[in-house]
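Dear support,

I submitted the protein below through the web form. The confirmation email said the job was done, but the results page showed an empty box. After a refresh the structure appeared. I'm attaching both so you can tell me whether what I see now is the final result or a partial one.
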Amino acid sequence: THITYSPTFRIVVDALKEAGYKRVPGWKDRAVIKMATRQGDAILGSTHGAGTAWMLIQHKDVLGVKEIVEAVVWGYQPRLMGLFGNADGFKFTASPDSAVLNIRFTIRNV
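What the results page shows now:
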């Protein structure tokens, strides 16, 4: 599923702006935001990032010690009930109700 929670949506958009992007990129040009950067820390501190980190911390006995190393961000502007969207991303002015924003966290063993 995509990000519909407005505070996380805004944090990610602001992080992309600060990283020098002109719009939310589509999958082909997806943004890779490294952790330990201001933008990466902001995304990790969002509800969606913190939830992922908390899950890894709580399950390290089963999963082993993991580290989130980057957030991959992309989106598109849907048409026709979410189908056939613009694969080139969307403008920063879009709202969570009108755009599909995705975050994929890259996790590695420590």
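Response: this is the final, complete result; the empty box was a page-load delay. The helical segments are 6-18, 38-44, 47-58, 60-63.
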